[in-house]
Amino acid sequence: MTTAAQSPFKSDSTPSNKCGFTLMNNQVGEVVAQVMATKPNVTVTWLPSMMRVDAIGRMDVIYDEISEAAGEEPGWFNSAEFEESMSTHYGRMVHEDDRTIMFANPEDAAEFLGFDLVARS
């Protein structure tokens, strides 16, 4: 009798408590990745055609930090510039005037999204 090895790609519905996004491998994406790599709960993985940015719980992409690192005036980097450089994301994403916030858990984003977490009958 033979047995098959367990697949590393099996289904797992356990919450990861992670959120993240991928960035295009261009000048802006590189600056965003470098800034995010300095954050305590963020891991950046540099790949040949993109950068992957993952965080535990919550991460804030603060626009003026990116503008400064790029050598630009405050206000240069914004949600439109971020969306243009970002390929995809996972977790809840909230754009504010000065930052984009990523949440691993939808409940943590409830107040920003206007969700009422009180059960109603």
CATH architecture term: Alpha-Beta Complex
CATH superfamily: Monooxygenase component MmoB/DmpM
SSE sequence, one letter per element = EHEEEHHEEEH
Q: Structural class, from secondary structure content?
A: alpha+beta
Helix content percent band: 25-40%
Q: Main β-sheet: number of strands, strand sense, barrel status?
A: 4 strands, antiparallel
Which regions have little confidence, pLDDT < 50, spanning 5+ residues?
A: none
CATH topology: Phenol Hydroxylase P2 Protein
Looking at the structure, what is the overall shape? Answer: flat
Strand content: 25-35%
Average pLDDT, rounded to a whole number, is 90
| Strand segment count | 7
Q: Please, how many domains? A: 1
Instruction: Give the number of helices.
Output: 4
Short description:
The protein contains four helices and seven strands; from the N terminus they run βαβββααβββα. The chain is of the alpha+beta class.
Describe what you observe in this structure.
The protein has 121 residues and is α+β, with helices and mostly antiparallel strands. It has a single domain, classed as Monooxygenase component MmoB/DmpM (Phenol Hydroxylase P2 Protein, Alpha-Beta Complex). Helices cover 26% and strands 31% of the residues. Strands 2-3-1-5 form a 4-stranded antiparallel sheet. A 3-stranded antiparallel sheet has the order 4-7-6. A hairpin with a 3-residue loop joins strand 2 (42-46) and strand 3. The radius of gyration is 17 Å and the shape is flat. The N and C termini lie far apart (54 Å).
